[in-house]
Amino acid sequence: MAKREKITVRDIARKKGVEPIAMITAYDTPTARIVDEAGVDIILVGDSLGMVVLGLESTLSVEMSDMIRHTEAVARAKPSALVVGDMPFMSYEADVKEALRNAGRFLSAGADAVKIEGGSEYSDVIKALKRAGIPVMAHVGLTPQKHKLLGGYRLMGKTASEAAEIIKDAEEVAEAGAFSIVIEFTAWQVAREITERVHIPTICIGSGPYCDGQVLVIHDILGLSPSIPPFVKKYVDLSKIIREAVSRYVTDVKRGQLLQENMYWSMKKGEYEKLRTILGEK
Ligand code: KIV
Asked: What is the pTM of this model?
């Protein structure tokens, strides 16, 4: 399979209105390699890592060290896809300098860009990162790091006033210099309105079809998550496939049927007899 050219943020920008953008999460080297070979445009090392890989309750306890470790793992696959590192809770909110330092760590770890959750309240952060040469993907609508403030993981923009706020947020982050925007779990009209109003690509999750691209969490589409959001299309039930394969392995081990004769190796000729002597046995 021929390796694609490296995809840059400029390539992503050029896709708006031309070709839908396919983004998927990945958190480790082999998965990054596979999704890259499958042709995704963007790999997001999402802080969904906390739930789908680390077994945490929410993304609130994901730390910079977790994200950096996994961004490095994804970057080691040397994907052609653009690699976006998701800035975890409290790594960019407190002040711009801290946001800069933390975002810089993502680029040193091999990311091509970072994502931050939130709207106009982070315009200054987006501007500062852009000034420092760090491309930023913004994230509006449902922002899971703020689920406690939002009142849970709920559909956003169902009322005109909430919809207008989200649209304003999206316009301001685009104005501040974000290169793209994730729109999570909003009414489809909100996502369509944003997509028509901003000059940068919108990448949606659970916000309908009128966007410049779509993103999903890989564990959800592969059937590795115990429960999935209603907007997820599951392509395969890997849990079932893995369970069946491992159960056959367990049966083989229990029955002593795991190893064929060509799957284990002998000492050099005569060495076993010498060993028996050394061990003082007959
Ligand atoms: O962390 C993540 O995986 C995300 C996507 C759901 C957009 O932010």
From this structure: 0.96
